[in-house]
Specification:
By secondary structure, the protein is mainly α. The chain has 20 helices and two strands. It has a two-stranded parallel sheet. The chain binds protoporphyrin IX containing FE and copper (II) ion. The site of copper (II) ion has 3 residues, from loops. The site of protoporphyrin IX containing FE has 28 residues, from helix 2, helix 3, helix 16 and helix 19.
Amino acid sequence: MSADTASAPEIRLTGAHLLVANVALLGGIVTGLLQGLEHAGFEFPASEYLLRSYYHSVSLHGVLNVLVWTTFFISGFLPFISARAYAMPLASPRLGWLTFWLMLAGLLIAAVPLAGNAATVMFTFYAPLKAHWAFYIGLTLVVVGTWLITLRLALSQRAWRAQHPGERTPLAAFMSLVTMAMWTLASLGLAVSMLFFLIPWSLGLVRGTDVLLTRTLFWFTGHPIVYFWLLPAYISWYTLMPRQAGGRLFSDPMARASFLLFLILSSPLGLHHQVTDPGIHEGWKLFQAFLTFAVFFPSLLTFFNVVASLEGAGRARGGKGWFAWFGRLPWGDPSVAAQLLAMLTFTAGGIGGLINASYNVNLVVHNTAYVVGHFHTTVGTAVTLTYMGISYWLVPHLAGRALWSRRMALVQCWVWFVGMLIFSTVLHELGLRGMPRRTMISQAAYFQPEWKALLPWVGVGGTLLFISGILYLLNLLLTVTVSRAPAAAVPDFAVAAAPAEEGPAVLNRLRPWVVVAAVMLVIAYGPTLARLVATSQLNVPGLRVW
Ligand code: HEM
Ligand SMILES: [Cu+2]
């Protein structure tokens, strides 16, 4: 069966997910623009009806961008790409739709208090800030929905293996499954926090909560969630980009190995977000800080493998020199250009991440604007710009119509890149000058003169990002509505120079690795969580500070 026939049943389902994702992104860039302009000195347009306050905006911005845009994009993209990789329709389209409606219902349930200023608790919803119960229940339903996607991918793999005994699972499908397995394990922390603590508390069933325990459970999920966003981008970089660029994937077994390392290493290190939290033993913080550096290893494997693949492509296209081949890549293809720019930004983001991860250096940047600069290069660009690049072939395919304007798409990705260069560089520097994040900065009583000259650039960068985001959304909208030409073909999977069969069979297994991942979690978190639960008093009352 051809890949196109295999993925045909997913078209409407993937389209539904992408529609929700892009609507969320629209809300995400509008709030982002207003926040950027606020930093630049413009008055924040708070009103009775839409955004009640700056903090209402930041809460919406965080949730819409990193919880909704990412999750719905991933939930549409991974099943689609898996069906193509298997060249076989996925199991149970009915389960697929059920999952979509469950996630959408959860999203709408959470959206009511969020939009109505009853959940202005930021996307991290730290207790004792207390949101309306519907916010917690709604988000929990979205998480449960993602587990059903894992189930559907697992059922599909089983069906495929029954028909292909002894064969290696196709790379993109294997990677999708690893991503979802990692996320399902990692999201248990969030689910426990919601079900046993935040939901009963917000419903008034228990009198108080435990701040440290719920924070720890949040970060149990909150760090690996970044790999939940990143790995789907890597799937595109590994399995599609080399071919889109005119080359081959350098090594399939190495790609599998890196994903399996992400599976076991990306979860047991969330304490690195809590280095300043009292009540957690420093030894465990240090242990998890070391693991944070360990997870840099599969990141380097990815960097090496992807760059080697692209270098091959660049040289095949006549590129020469140590670096000049990079210019020979097909920069005229907006899908490729967007993802290359995403990768370039990510190199800077990855280095910044090592700074955040360093136990003592973290104290310098913790909770400053530096962190905002950091995650806009990572989830805000490496991930987001890659998803945009994927959308440039995926949405035309789903709609059966050609991309409305390639030139507009090319302009879009460069404007995002330049806008982010300005926005994030300036925020990094402001953070080093001590400017806090999550603050309506123009109103801060402790406003420092040395921030002043840089702040307008936050507005400039933010405006460029906003313009770019609008160009992207407009292009997609025009593609699905007025474009008339037929869609171009979906990019094929890259052939691997070193194919899967050259690697050991264990790189094609999942279960043993899931067991290792679970054991790692028990080691890294068991003692801390056991002590926090044993000493928990559930006596902290909720606060509504907004
Ligand atoms: C037009 C594009 C964007 C602009 C102008 C923008 C601007 C901003 C600004 C100024 C803040 C700082 C708020 C504060 O600390 O007081 C912020 C926070 C944040 N942004 Fe963006 N952003 C944009 C797009 C994105 C995207 C695409 C993502 C992720 C996919 C993202 C994720 C976040 C997150 C997670 C926060 C932290 C929220 C919190 O502290 O609770 N942003 N953004
Ligand atoms: Cu982290």
